[in-house]
Design brief:
It contains 6 helices and 3 strands; from the N terminus they run ααβααββαα. By secondary structure, the protein is mainly alpha-helical.
Length: about 150
Amino acid sequence: MNESPEDAFTQIVLEIFKVSGMLNTEGDIMAGEFGLSSARWKVLGATAQAEHTLTVSEIARIIGQSRQATQRLVDAMKKDLLLTVADNPKHKRSKLVILTNKGEKIYRQLWNKQLPWAAAGAEALTKSELYSTLSAMKKLSQHFAGN
């Protein structure tokens, strides 16, 4: 192992790009049954798992996309009756994004569908590797978010 830390980091980044593409493809396949893309599933997930109602900007930060791209997704999902928006008492122009009953139902179905897939993926790593990877990804996320 004569790699420098910079070389190792670059290799990690390249693997993350590869795995990210694979995860998007897998997400598209799973979500496709419900007429969704992995991008729309990410918006559903961010909205469903949030501890409070989110704005488009907050959803964008959570899923790692631009506010504009996330706004386009939210607008399309409103037309599909998966999301609705409400006035934000803290900011007049920044609406709050809310799952509709249809959106909640589809999210729950997708959650249940992905559980066996997640279990199979977790088996590819030891418990130690799984939690070490999670910790490393969180640290990288915080680093690039400027925290």
